[in-house]
Every structure is written in structure tokens, then in C-alpha cells.
């Protein structure tokens, strides 16, 4: 399994006690497959993504990325794991206003200590993969909301992650653009063989995902498919 959560429990301080955000959550995602996690507001979706991204350490349970149990890693090793193996697509694209679409991707290489120039072919290839090759020189204000979200997705794939974590990618989009972005994530998951988890409160566009899991009050269930 490329991504594995094994009986993960996460609590937050809550007044005098603790609030259980994730309650013994287990989830295994093979490469090349997309699991959507749906649940109402406050059910634990963002917490699940943060734990899978190794941004939060759970109280108990295991998070295994590409066969590596993250519990044993030092902070610097965790950072390296995130930089090489994990791609995160946040709800808002958060693009840098002064950079063109292709530069938004090249800057990722720069942050990793690589030359933006050598990253150019890959950046262009990814923009092509998300259907934006002709918009490479545009800045965010010259792109539509759906196009900005595509740049956001391409940017998360710059370092060729094996695990792709996606947070509510369609919340800022209209119906048609939301459906197109979901199709794109599904397609990229299969073609680039990522283990993808997408969290959302909205089931509308989930027709093509490989599996839908539900989270309620921090408990995850995977309904049997008929
Ligand atoms: N940093 C925190 N400190 C304390 N409680 C928190 C913290 N973050 C989340 N919670 C609580 O944990 C529970 C799960 O929150 P989480 O953000 O994971 O849910 P969610 O399903 O992503 O919600 P939404 O769809 O509204 O973003 C909620 O009850 C929330 O209030």
C-alpha cells in the first residue's frame, strides 16, 4: 500500500478535556487509485488529511507512506518525506499574484534547491497534462477559477509525489468546472499512479472515483459497493 492509516486516533485540547477528531481511523490506498472521503462539516476530514500529510502527529496509530512508518522519523526526515513523496492540493489555489502559471510550478523546484530553468520542461509538461499549455505565460488574475485550480493541481505534482492529498478542490467552482477538475484529478491519479485521497462534503462529482469512504464524528466507514 502506498498510503496506510492504521487505527489512527487524533485528539485536540477542548476546555478541560480532549475532543476526538479521528477515532481509530484505518484506510489503505494503493497507488493509482482515488479514495474520496466525504462527511459533514466538523466530521474530521481536514484532520485526516493533515495526519496523512504528516503535518500532525496522531495520538496513536500508524501512518505509513510508501512502506515507511512515519512515527520513527525525525522532523528533518519527515520534511524530506513530504517534499519527495507527498503532494497537497489545498482548497484555495493560493497562487503568487506576480508569477505566471509556469513560474508557479518552477518556484517549487527553487524551494527544493533545484534550478527553475532545469525544471521548465517538467513544468510545461504538467501544464500540458492539466490542459493549460497555452496559458503558461498568464498570471493568476488572467486565469479563471477553474484554471487557477488546475495550476494548483499541476504544482502539487511537480516533485512527482506518490501520495496526492486533495482538500475540497471544487468548493470555489461552478458545477461544470467542478466536474472537470474532479475528472482531471481522477485521470491524473490513474495516469501518474498516485495514491490519492480527496476530502469533500459534496458528493456531486464523485461518480468516477474508485471508492467513497464516509467520516462521521471522526469515525471512518467504507460502505460496501454493490
Ligand atoms: N486545532 C484544533 N483545535 C481544537 N479542535 C479542533 C482543531 N481543529 C479541528 N478541531 C475540531 O475537530 C473536529 C474535526 O475538525 P476537522 O476540521 O477535521 O473537520 P472537517 O470535516 O474538515 O470540517 P470542515 O468540512 O468544516 O472543514 C471538529 O469538531 C473541530 O471543531
From TrEMBL:
Q: Which Pfam families match?
A: ABC_tran (PF00005)
Q: Which InterPro entries match?
A: AAA+_ATPase, ABC_transporter-like_ATP-bd, ABC_transporter-like_CS, ABC_transpr_LolD-like, MacB-like_ATP-bd, P-loop_NTPase
Gene3D superfamilies in alphabetical order: P-loop containing nucleotide triphosphate hydrolases
Q: Which SUPFAM superfamilies match?
A: P-loop containing nucleoside triphosphate hydrolases
Output the Gene Ontology cellular-component terms.
plasma membrane
- What is the organism field in this record? Streptomyces rubellomurinus (strain ATCC 31215)
The name this protein carries in UniProt is ABC transporter ATP-binding protein
User: Which of UniProt's keywords are assigned here?
Assistant: ATP-binding, Nucleotide-binding, Transport
Q: Which GO terms describe its molecular function?
A: ATP binding; ATP hydrolysis activity; transmembrane transporter activity
Amino acid at each position: 500500500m502506498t498510503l496506510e492509516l492504521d487505527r489512527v486516533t487524533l485528539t485536540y485540547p477542548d476546555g478541560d478535556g480532549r475532543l476526538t477528531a479521528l477515532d481509530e481511523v484505518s484506510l489503505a490506498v494503493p497507488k493509482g487509485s482515488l479514495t474520496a472521503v466525504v462527511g459533514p462539516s466538523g466530521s474530521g476530514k481536514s484532520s485526516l488529511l493533515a495526519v496523512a500529510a504528516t503535518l500532525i502527529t496522531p495520538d496513536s496509530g500508524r501512518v505509513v507512506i510508501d512502506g515507511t512508518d512515519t512515527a520513527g522519523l525525525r522532523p528533518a526526515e519527515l520534511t524530506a518525506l513530504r517534499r519527495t513523496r507527498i503532494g497537497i492540493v489545498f482548497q484555495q489555489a493560493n497562487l503568487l499574484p506576480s508569477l505566471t502559471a509556469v513560474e508557479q510550478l518552477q518556484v517549487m523546484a527553487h524551494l527544493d534547491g533545484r534550478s527553475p530553468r532545469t525544471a521548465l520542461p517538467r513544468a510545461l509538461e504538467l501544464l500540458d497534462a492539466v490542459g493549460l499549455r497555452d496559458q503558461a505565460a498568464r498570471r493568476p488574475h488572467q486565469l479563471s477559477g477553474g484554471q487557477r485550480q488546475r495550476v494548483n493541481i499541476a504544482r502539487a505534482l511537480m516533485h512527482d509525489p506518490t501520495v496526492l492529498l486533495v482538500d475540497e478542490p471544487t468548493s470555489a467552482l461552478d458545477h461544470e468546472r467542478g466536474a472537470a477538475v474532479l475528472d482531471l484529478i481522477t485521470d491524473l491519479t490513474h495516469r501518474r499512479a498516485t495514491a490519492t485521497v480527496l476530502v469533500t462534503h459534496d458528493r456531486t462529482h464523485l461518480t468516477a472515483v474508485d471508492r467513497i469512504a464516509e467520516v462521521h464524528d471522526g469515525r471512518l466507514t467504507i460502505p460496501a459497493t454493490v
